[in-house]
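Fill in residues.
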């Protein structure tokens, strides 16, 4: 039986490039290491494998020497990262 891979919206990485730059990380190297492109991060409705997002955050944390990288990213975001609000 094939195992399905959970997918998440790329909007959950909103602000990622700016945070990497603010912390002195090398964005191009991080993206290349994980196999992402800046264009992918800029498409908020793109579905990406969860494990790839986790890997991106881990590589960024190492590159920026910030164990709390994911927390710092979350602090810059709001509920809009989850998609359009429907009333």
């Amino acid at each position: 039986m094939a195992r399905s891979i959970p997918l998440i919206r790329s909007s959950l990485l909103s602000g990622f490039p700016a945070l990497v730059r603010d912390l002195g990380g090398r964005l191009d190297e991080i993206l290349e290491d994980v196999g992402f492109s800046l264009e992918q991060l800029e498409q908020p409705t793109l579905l990406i494998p969860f494990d790839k997002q986790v890997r991106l955050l881990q590589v960024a944390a190492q590159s920026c020497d910030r164990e709390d990288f994911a927390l710092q990213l979350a602090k810059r975001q709001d509920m809009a990262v989850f998609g359009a609000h429907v009333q």
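The chain has one domain: 9-82.
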